[in-house]
Structure formats: structure tokens, C-alpha cells
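2024-03-11 09:14:02 DEBUG pipeline.ingest accepted 1 chain
2024-03-11 09:14:02 DEBUG pipeline.ingest length=154
2024-03-11 09:14:03 DEBUG pipeline.predict start
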Amino acid sequence: MKKIFMIALAILISVAFVTTVFAQAPKDAPKPAAADKPAVDKPAKAEKAAKPAKAKAKAFTGEVVNADAAAFVAKDKKGEMTFDVSGVKGYKAEDYKAGDKVVVKYSEKDGKMMASAIKKAKAPAKKEAPKKEMKKEDKPAATPATPPAPPAKK
């Protein structure tokens, strides 16, 4: 009897939870228009929905190939990239010369790479191999001289 009661209770609970899940409206479904309200065309909301999401910022690290007032060309192992620098504050083409290491933060808009910041990359510090200093304790001990052999007796 207890087993039958437990099975019936489990079925009842699962049906209760499943029906609440199906009762929720999907997020993508349009809301039904109210019957008593006239449909009003709201262009402001349509324009907001039509705007694409803000482009995600990316970073590019490489060497300068060419820098001028309108475009900035840099290359890395994968190839060259040309950036539009019209929106970069404080950018001066004279500050960058061919071969400089740079980090460019950019986003892609309308097929163009729009740079938002350009910084010279710091050259990695060259690490010198640490010199081993021999301590007095580390020096190899001098081998004791062997005493001369006693003269042979005749």
C-alpha cells in the first residue's frame, strides 16, 4: 500500500511541475495586443531593436609597418592588419616608426578595423643566466699529497 501511495504522489508532483513549465511563455514570442487598445506604431522602439549590438573590443599585438594620419598598418605572425585611427585620441603618426612593437585595441565596424587605442608594447626584459658563485664550502677539497714511499730495503 505504501509503494502505491508513493508512486501516485511522485506522478502527481511531476505533473504539477511539468504543467507550470509549459504555462510559461517563450521569451521570443511576441506579446498579444490588447483588444481594447488600438495598435500604435512606435518607430522609436523599432529603431532601438534594429541597432546592432555594440562591437566587442579586441586586441592586436605586432610590429608597425606603416603609420600615417588616416591609417595604421601593423603585422604579426598571421599577417598584416590595417586600422582606421580617426577615433584614437592623442594619436600622432610621428610617434610610431617601422619595427616598433605595439598593442592595438580595436573593434570591427562595417568591415573596417576601427582602432580605439594604440600603445607601444614594452620590450620583454632579457633574463641573464644567473652566475653560480662558488662558496668556500663548494670548492673541491684538495687531495692530500700521498707520503713518499719508504725506501726499499736491500
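2024-03-11 09:14:41 DEBUG pipeline.report The chain is about 20% helix and 25% strand.
2024-03-11 09:14:41 DEBUG pipeline.predict end
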